[in-house]
Amino acid sequence: MTEAAKQNAIALRDAAIRDAPRDSGELEDTIKYYPDRNSAGLIWRVVAGVKASSGFYARYLEFGTVDQPAHPFFFVNYRILRPRFKSRMARAMRKGIKEA
């Protein structure tokens, strides 16, 4: 199951990087994935804008501001990939049960 969760995180990270707006390229560099500390590898987090210099830049691009239209790149990919994520986790769970 931990490998399936990691594959889901990698897929979301890659899709977000692919669709991220490219001005300076700084946003692409901030999209990362890492395991949650307390989940034993079952939960992986994908985040954008983790550099101190970028602050809320990723949120401003994703949702827009009063003066700037939204340029969605993160949650749109999550919604598209969610069925695949669920399927991958279900297959891993069935495989784990069969092996037990």
Q: What is the radius of gyration?
A: 16 Å
Quickly give the structural class: mainly alpha
Total count of strands: 2
Shape label: elongated
Number of domains: 1
Give the distance, in angstroms, between the N- and C-terminal Cα atoms: 13 Å
Poorly predicted residue ranges: none
Q: Strand-residue fraction?
A: 5-15%
How many helices does DSSP assign?
A: 4
Largest sheet: 2 strands, antiparallel
Q: What's the SSE pattern?
A: HHEEHH
- What average pLDDT do the residues reach? 86
Q: What share of residues is helical?
A: 55-70%
Biggest sheet strand order reads: 1-2
What would your notes on this structure say?
Helix 1 runs antiparallel to helix 4. The protein is mainly alpha-helical. Strand 1 and strand 2 form a beta hairpin. It is built from four helices and two strands. The two termini are about 15 Å apart. The protein has a two-stranded antiparallel ribbon with strand order 1-2. The protein has one domain.
Provide a short characterization of the protein structure.
With 100 residues, the protein is mainly alpha-helical. The chain contains 4 helices and 2 strands; from the N terminus they run ααββαα. A hairpin with an 8-residue loop joins strand 1 (32-35) and strand 2 (44-47).
